[in-house]
Specification:
Layout lengths: L4 E4 L5 H26 L5 E9 L3 E8 L9 E6 L6 E7 L6 E5 L5 E12 L2 E4 L4 E4 L3 E3 L6 E5 L5 E4 L9 H25 L3 H12 L2 H12 L1 H21 L5 H19 L4 H29 L5 H4 L2 H8 L2 H4 L9 H13 L4 E4 L1 H31 L11 H8 L1 H18 L5 H19 L13 E7 L10 E2 L2 E2 L2 H8 L2 E3 L2 E2 L7 H10 L9 H4 L8 H7 L3 E5 L9 H8 L3 E3 L11 E2 L2 E2 L1 H14 L4 E6 L25 H26 L5 E7 L7 H8 L5 H7 L5 E4 L7 E3 L3 E2 L3 H8 L24 E2 L5 E2 L3 E4 L2 E4 L4 E2 L2 H22 L9
Parallel strand pairs: 14-23, 14-24, 17-26, 18-27, 19-20, 19-23
Antiparallel strand pairs: 1-13, 2-5, 2-7, 3-4, 3-6, 6-12, 7-8, 7-11, 9-12, 10-11, 15-16, 17-25, 21-22, 24-25, 28-29, 29-30, 30-31, 31-32
Helix pairs in contact: 1-2, 1-5, 3-4, 4-12, 5-6, 5-7, 6-12, 7-11, 13-14, 21-22
Length: 834
């Protein structure tokens, strides 16, 4: 049977057929042209590394676009064991890049780097000699064409000096757009001149090629025009989205995105009627385009992308909706350009009663898209395997949703996010009425025990401001520490001497690190055993400390000079009850005031004071600093201590970094005094988590005689200090405490009503001895009398004792951790508990 594509209508119009086919053929050719350039990464910078290694694991490249190195600005790949040289290509954003850093895995091994090329558009630059090594990444042999390195696994990396050159790709983009327009005009006139009828076009192809194959291909493309348009259009929008938000995706991720589109194409090809299929494909295009558009708008405000959890969290979206006009960039509207054309094409199609093709074309088309389906299955099988292995902890411990887009693509990410929500819903434990009553009874009893006493501290800070400062990686062994006779943290030492200082305050964070520090401090609940709660349950309801302050008329304000999407911070802070917030876009950041991750602590404090002064008083301000962040390598401009043999080591770098953090803290206190806020503001200071320093190194500088597991557990302390203005009774509290105790203690100090709270920690200012067990997420715990860790019970001197001494507290720990997990996993607090 002769293959034909024919339109049937009462009054057929050859002219309209020609316009229809010409317009759509033009779109296909233009999209294929743009698709080609996106595939070869025309718009992206690239770092190409050729090397040999026996290290299996995640290899990452950090890029500094003016905000320092941070976990959000990275690209990475998981390497499997392979003989011979490997060529890694890292796609980087088309922005000016100031520095590059290469992290060759996190395991001990050998690396032999043959070449490092920085590609800017069409130009290439060999930069192997610009890299220097850090953190025991030892360079063996002379520097030359080849770098021979030995990694110790203690976060080694190579970093470049400052790269030169203006923003990459600016003029190349202009040239490409101009060429695309010219190409489109030329194609239009050529088709107008030579394509008077679809059959004429077919005969022209056949005459030129003398092949039925090309004629058949042309007919297949025309019959599958709607599907081709959908695939090409959405694929280009995925690449456009990634380039727009500065999150580069490599060719592998582009293939994963294409795999999803091929799956949609196969499903569409099952529809026999072209007319229905066209409108379904256009609807899918509109839906996915709208999703990408919404992501761009949301990113303009929150520097993040939408999630199912956020969509269910209306208060976040209302903030965006109130200023949507300001958030929409005119260039975003280009996403809908193809849909405008499809609208007019659809108006033309709807006038026809039917669009018929032979059964041979239908069969051939389905075979074609079935092949695409097989290709899709292969790619998704590989992706599923990567997610399951998760060797680089990309999916289980990601820092932001945008970080996942680097490995999935924006549309695949949304499907992944939806799958995770469905998976959580299916696996969500159901609580019986009996269990609900048991949980309510436990928290009611716990609350009464912790708050039943009213001593001199209760409501002592009534109507005063509160600044709660979460200090990055600040451990307790620094307090009072001297190196070479000089205090490492003189300002915080003085602050502790004149305040209430909890010297046995244990780190209760887990895999969520900084985000756990924020969550546990604000909610007095335990972190998750796997992953970060801020990324897994951002839409849950919590009875957080800021909510309590809001109830009594306080202004609540959260701030950090970093990205709001990092650890999903903007969403979580709003969920916690902070009405006002300020992140990186609210601060003036230049190359001169960046140390490590971003804005230096001193400049952060100088810029945040005017913001605090503008807040209606009384206020509760939660502040998060940055500078003292692992790996503490950016210290060249802040070195002041004479640390002798420790110079150049991880511990030595940490001491320099902590000394600077202390200096900046002293500056904060001075600024608060100058502004007049100091005398009416309670200042609470705590470390968010441990510093990642080996416990044996800490024992060495702090003269700690303990060893082994007992040392590891007992050294994991951070400071917590509360300064109350006009209260001249400094005190050091030796009772074991931890992060969970921050909110109950501050609530007690300010006389807040906690009758509806779910604080699992204790009020540390009570004179009564209540539940002195400090539990960690891994099931270990500390009391005033003994320690339980790694299935061993120790007395307070570090000697192993019988397990019976720890049995009661061990059961208590399991019970409490189970309650915390059940409350989180079932969103227990979203419903009335009684």
């Amino acid at each position: 049977m002769k293959t034909q594509l024919a339109f049937s209508r009462t009054k057929d119009s050859n002219k309209k057929k020609v316009i229809f086919n010409t317009a759509n053929l033009l779109i296909v050719l233009a999209i294929i042209s743009i698709l080609y350039y996106s595939l070869i990464g025309f718009f992206n910078n690239r770092l190409i590394i050729i090397f040999k290694t026996d290290i299996v694991g995640l290899h990452k490249v950090y890029y500094d676009v003016g905000e320092g190195f941070n976990e959000g600005d990275t690209v990475g790949t998981v390497l499997e064991k392979k003989e011979g040289s490997q060529r890694l290509v890292f796609d980087l954003p088309s922005k000016r890049i100031y520095k590059l850093r290469f992290d060759p895995g996190d395991k001990i091994g050998n690396i032999e780097i043959e070449s490092i090329v920085f590609k800017q558009g069409f130009s290439e630059q060999e930069i192997i000699n610009q890299f220097i090594s850090y953190n025991d990444l030892k360079v063996e042999g002379e520097r030359g064409h080849t770098l021979r390195l030995v990694s110790t696994g203690e976060d080694p990396y190579l970093s470049t000096t400052v790269l030169s050159g203006a923003e990459i790709g600016k003029y190349q983009k202009v040239i490409f757009i101009a060429l695309s327009i010219i190409l489109g005009i030329v194609l239009f006139f050529l088709l107008k001149k030579y394509t008077n009828h679809l059959e004429l076009a077919s005969r022209l192809v056949r005459k030129t090629t003398q092949s039925k194959f090309f004629t058949t291909c042309l007919r297949l493309v025309l019959y599958s025009l709607d599907i081709v348009l959908l695939i090409s259009s959405i694929y280009i929008k995925i690449v456009y989205f990634s380039n727009t938000i500065g999150v580069p995706i490599n060719i592998k991720v582009k293939m994963y995105s294409l795999a999803l589109l091929l799956l949609l194409a196969f499903l569409l090809s099952l529809l026999k009627k072209f007319r229905y299929r066209f409108f379904l494909a256009a609807s899918i295009n509109l839906l996915l385009t709208s999703l990408i558009f919404a992501d761009l708008v949301y990113n303009s405000y929150f520097n993040d992308v939408l999630t199912v959890s956020v969509l269910s969290y209306a208060s976040q979206l209302s903030t965006v909706a109130s200023s949507v006009g300001e958030l929409i960039n005119i260039k975003y509207l280009v996403l809908f350009g193809d849909l405008v054309v499809l609208f007019f094409v659809g108006c033309f199609i709807i006038k026809f009663k039917s669009i018929q093709v032979s059964s041979g074309v239908v069969r051939s088309t389905r075979i074609f898209w079935t092949i695409g389906l097989l290709f899709s299955i292969v790619l998704f099988t590989n992706l599923t395997s990567e997610i399951k292995k998760d060797e680089g902890h990309i999916y289980s411990s990601n820092f932001s949703h945008k970080d996942l887009i680097k490995y999935l693509g924006v549309i695949n990410y949304h499907f992944y996010d939806a799958f995770q929500v469905v998976k959580s819903s299916v696996n969500k434990p159901e609580l019986s009425k009996k269990r609900v009553s048991e949980i309510n009874a436990w928290i009611d009893n716990h609350r009464q025990e912790s708050f039943k006493e009213k001593n001199e501290y209760f409501n002592l800070a009534n109507n005063k401001n509160l600044i709660l400062l979460q200090s990055e990686s600040f451990q307790n062994f620094l307090i009072g520490l001297r190196i070479g006779g000089e205090e490492v943290t003189p300002n915080i030492n003085e602050f502790a001497r004149n305040s209430i200082y909890f010297e046995n305050f244990y780190d209760q964070t887990h895999l969520g690190r900084t985000s756990d520090g924020e969550f546990v401090a604000m909610n007095s609940m335990y972190p998750l055993s796997v992953g970060a709660l801020s990324m897994t349950y951002p839409g849950n309801k919590f009875t957080s400390l800021p909510h309590l302050f809001n109830k009594i008329g306080y202004t609540t304000f959260a701030t950090s000079p970093f990205r709001g999407d990092f650890w999903n911070r903007a969403v979580m802070h709003s969920n916690f009850g902070f009405v006002n917030s300020a992140y990186v876009k609210e601060y003036k950041i230049t190359g001169d005031n960046i140390i490590g991750l971003g804005l230096s602590d001193e400049i952060f404090y100088e810029q945040v004071i005017p913001k605090l002064m503008s807040l209606p008083q009384p206020f509760f301000s939660f502040m998060i600093n940055l500078t003292n962040h692992h790996p503490y390598s950016d210290i060249s401009q802040i070195k002041e201590l004479d640390i002798g043999d420790l110079e150049g080591t991880l511990l030595g770098n940490y001491l320099h970094s902590a000394h600077y953090a202390d200096k900046a803290f002293g500056r904060l206190i001075a600024l608060l005094k100058e502004s007049g806020l100091y005398n009416n503001t309670v200042i609470a200071f705590y470390g968010d988590h441990d510093a990642g320093i080996p416990e044996t190194d800490i024992a060495l500088v702090s003269n700690n005689p303990n060893t082994g597991v007992f040392l590891k557990k007992t050294v994991d302390k951070v400071p917590f200090i509360i300064h109350i203005p006009e209260y001249n009774k400094p005190r050091t509290i030796e009772t074991v405490t931890g992060h969970l105790d921050i909110s109950p203690t501050l609530a007690y100090l300010f006389g807040l009503d906690i009758s509806d709270s779910f604080f699992m920690g204790k009020n540390m200012l009570t004179n009564q001895q209540i539940q002195d067990v400090v539990i960690s997420r891994d099931g270990s715990y500390v009391t005033n009398d003994h320690v339980y860790a790694f299935e061993t019970c120790y007395d307070n001197k570090g000697d192993a004792i019988g397990s019976d001494a720890c049995a009661d507290e061990l059961e208590t720990a399991k019970k409490i951790l189970n309650i915390s997990d059940e409350v989180v996993q079932t969103n227990f607090l979203a419903n009335k508990r009684h």
